[in-house]
Design goal:
An 8-stranded mixed sheet has the order 1-5-4-6-7-8-9-3, sandwiched between helices. A 4-stranded antiparallel sheet has the order 10-11-14-13, covered by helices on one side. It has 14 helices and 14 strands. α4 (about 75-85) runs antiparallel to α11 and α6 packs parallel to α7 (about 145-150). Helix content is about 40%, strand content about 15%. Bound molecules: pyridoxal-5'-phosphate.
Length: about 400
């Protein structure tokens, strides 16, 4: 299949700024920066409460793939201790956290780059390896930060058509040219929840030229059934052009603290460390991540809760006759008759989900797996929203 050779997806034409009083410098900013369509996150609870005059305590947020349990009690205790000393700058090298990761993953500390969320590591990879004239390859429907970060460097995004909503590795391989410096793979992918078997990913990596960096983004890895998980960091010794990224935002419940990491060849890590800001991971985040890493049982329990919640959602969606994609993450994509209207109706009922029209999926909504009670709220609210939508269609 021929890849579509076009700029990174969320590009809007860089027209004149709306504000005619803007300084001339704004007009002289790189066109590729002015053309970036800003990232749109899940609506915060407080915003929905304010706009719709709802009690924030009654609102259920299933919009940003967070862990509905929050962090483990051990993590909260570690944060309280670290909070006593926020006067000093954090350890810019994250020694303790890197040491713990190093022994957990069986890699050297010099192979680890800590990030302000794994998003930071994705950005650092583009900063270190992309310049205008280069290109980066990623799949249609892949995590939106790949096109955004690519575009921010003035590089060209090569979006490869998806296969069954997931990555088409053969087509991605065919899209690599002499200009390609980076390839992104999300496994599992957000927002589709699609997943690639370890051997398929490894044989893809083996085919990628060594002068191209592959970023294997495993933000949702912990939610995979253990039988499907692979030790992808072990591949780095064979493929020194591989970067594997992980996060503490999802299964560990630390999204607000912003901490993640990448594992890579030491020489690649050295480059990323040159472009990162000196204190990119704060001290509370480092302490929390260290404690979270230790609480293996908490992550296992979170995986089980997610699996049970996923089954609950799948069963509950059945009678509502909506199409859904099988998901390996902590979220599920559902196709509804009128996504914007259903989204608004859910909001009015105090349930926040995520529209994904910006991914080219205008008929779908992404729903994060919540607690049992939150999932029930969502299913009941969706049934109401659909009934209202059918009623209003009949009235017209
Ligand atoms: C696939 C994927 N990768 C990376 C991230 C970045 O997460 P964080 O920066 O919180 O680690 C996300 C967040 O939603 C994601 O969905």
């Amino acid at each position: 299949m021929k890849p579509t050779q076009k700029p990174a997806k969320p590009v809007s034409a860089a027209g004149p700024p709306q504000d005619t009083n803007c300084p001339a410098a704004v007009l002289r900013a790189p066109e590729y920066v002015r053309a970036i369509a800003p990232y749109v996150g899940g609506k915060p609870i407080e915003e929905v409460a304010r706009e719709l005059d709802l009690d924030p305590a009654t609102i259920v947020k299933l919009a940003s793939n967070e862990n509905p349990r929050g962090p483990s009690p051990k993590v909260l205790a570690a944060i309280a201790v670290a909070a006593a000393d926020v006067t000093r700058y954090p350890d810019g090298n994250g020694f303790a956290l890197k040491a713990a990761l190093s022994s957990r993953l069986g890699v050297r500390q010099e192979q680890i780059v800590l990030g302000n969320g794994s998003n930071d590591v994705l950005e650092l990879a583009t900063q270190a390896f992309l310049r205008p004239g280069d290109d980066a390859v990623y799949s249609q429907y892949a995590f939106i930060v790949y096109p955004l970060a690519t575009q921010a460097r003035g590089a060209l995004g090569i979006e490869v058509p998806a296969k069954d909503h997931g990555h088409d590795l053969d087509a991605m391989h065919a899209a690599i040219t002499s200009r390609t410096r980076l390839v992104f793979i999300a496994n599992p992918n957000n927002p589709t929840g699609t997943w690639l078997a370890g051997d398929a990913v490894e044989s893809f990596i083996a085919r990628v030229p060594r002068d191209v960096i592959i970023v294997l983004d495993e933000a949702y890895n912990e939610f995979l059934d253990p039988s499907l998980q692979v030790d992808s960091t072990a591949w780095i010794s064979r493929y020194p052009n591989l970067i594997v990224t992980h996060t503490f935002s999802k299964a560990h419940g630390l999204a607000a603290l912003r901490v993640g990491y990448g594992v890579m060849h030491a020489s690649v890590a050295d480059l990323l460390n040159r472009v990162r800001q000196p204190f990119n991971v704060n001290s509370l985040a480092q302490a929390a991540a260290l404690a979270a890493l230790d609480d293996v049982k908490y992550v296992e329990d979170s995986r089980r809760l997610n699996r049970d919640g996923m089954h609950q959602l799948e069963a509950g969606l059945q009678p509502l006759s909506v199409r859904r994609l099988p998901s390996h993450g902590n979220f599920i994509l559902v196709e509804v008759a009128d996504a914007p209207a259903i989204y608004q109706s859910l909001l009015r009922q105090g349930v926040i989900v995520r529209p994904v029209a910006n991914y080219g999926l205008p008929a779908w909504l992404r729903v994060t797996v919540g607690t049992r009670a939150e999932n029930e709220r969502f299913l009941a609210a969706l049934a109401m929203a659909q009934a209202a939508s059918i009623g209003s269609a009949r009235a017209h």
